[in-house]
Amino acid sequence: MWRKALLAAVCLCLRWAALGAEGKNNFEGIESKFSLRTPAEPDEDVCYLVPGQVNSLARCNFNHTSKTFVVIHGWTVTGMYESWVPKLVDALYKREPDSNVIVVDWLVRAQEHYPVSAAYTRLVGKDVATFIDWMEEEFNYPLNKLHLLGYSLGAHAAGIAGNLTKKKVNRITGLDPAGPTFEYADEVTRLSPDDAEFVDVLHTYTRGSPDRSIGIQKPVGHIDIYPNGGGFQPGCNLGEALRLIAEKGLGDVDQLVKCSHERSIHLFIDSLLNEEKPSMAYRCNTKEAFEKGLCLSCRKNRCNNLGYKVNRVRTKRNTKMYLKTRAQMPYKVFHYQVKIHFFGKTNMTKTNQPFLISLYGTLDESENIGFTLPEVSSNKTFSFLIYTEVDIGDLLMVKLQWEKDTFFSWSDWWTPFTFDIQRIRMKSGETQKKVVFCSRDGTSRLSKGEEAAIFVKCSEQPANRKRGGTKKASKENSAHESA
């Protein structure tokens, strides 16, 4: 079976060479179809734009003065559109009512064995490029109004299209571009920053070794955003999938099966529908540094909106960004860096310790946010990231509790584990505000399995001589933020 697939891929390479010798405006070889969807029927292909047939644009009521979105699907087992296609079309029209939303139909090629369909992205990209060149040359349609959105294999087809057009398209959004056969591919055969004036990418399923990961792991755009580290998305475990099936039926079962991979699409849809609640991503060298809360800076374009209203920042190298999200739409959360110095009369180190932190603010409160510190040691400062789904406004008070281990330990019974804490320093990623909280008693004792320690906003900032650790941490933050 795989030999046949590889043989077919070789045959495609020969076709590429033959097509390369032809003129770009030879429309006879185009197999992809270009469906102009409508707001009234986002799930139906009611009218096709046909390259070379001028009257097809008038027949389909193409708007020559508005933006155009070109949606390119990915590999399909069923040979049918997946449930996300009409949802994305509908969201695009809700955000841009006068726009044109075109869905590229390459379903026949997309339902082959994966290596064959992956090889077909070259021909699909050529079809799309020929269509775009025809629109620009025949109707003088400005390419600065053109936005390509490609999912999985469709992201690479969009990149190839952008590479082949005579003039650069405005923007390409890669929605978890496919990994297998593309992780080590040349830039001309996959999505890359050179394929459009601006290329932004969402990576949502990059688990496993390179080239075996469903989504491509390496950055391939001007801005590459890795929600939740890019490996696995909240709400995509089996239990959550079964619960959603029980609640909503089997209508979205295809999305549940590929939950993390398709989360890229739904994050973008969220950015279209919830304009007032944009999710914020932060530049960071590694996801490990992000998990420590070291990258919540917005200085010099270090933070950006995820999705449709991303700020177009072009740098000499790829910019990697991270954020946390909720399990369901709207996906926005609020990020906080927490820094605590643990005092102790005796040297003590504990690993993988569970804590609960509660935040109280001017608008709301968020209680018992669970987190685990890989290590807690006497007389050391630790930084970590927490996030909440609730907009609590300006912080007023913090409670910190050290939980008991889930298993019984004789050492916990005989040895009281206790730290002293004077202050908790916090920074909000969304507002960039820094707040220092002090113990009501000057020093709070935090004991494992005991009551929470309470901290309130300090009446004044601590003296400079006590802030040396903060200055050192600030330098470390800057180093991690510089991508």
TrEMBL record:
EC numbers for this chain: 3.1.1.34
Keyword Lipid metabolism recorded: yes
Catalytic residues in the record: 152 (nucleophile), 176 (charge relay system), 261 (charge relay system)
PTM section of the record: Tyrosine nitration after lipopolysaccharide (LPS) challenge down-regulates the lipase activity.
Gene Ontology cellular component terms for the protein in this record: catalytic complex; chylomicron; plasma membrane; very-low-density lipoprotein particle
UniProt domain PLAT: residue ranges: 334-457
Family: Belongs to the AB hydrolase superfamily. Lipase family.
Protein name: Lipoprotein lipase
Record lineage: Eukaryota, Metazoa, Chordata, Craniata, Vertebrata
Encoding gene per record: LPL
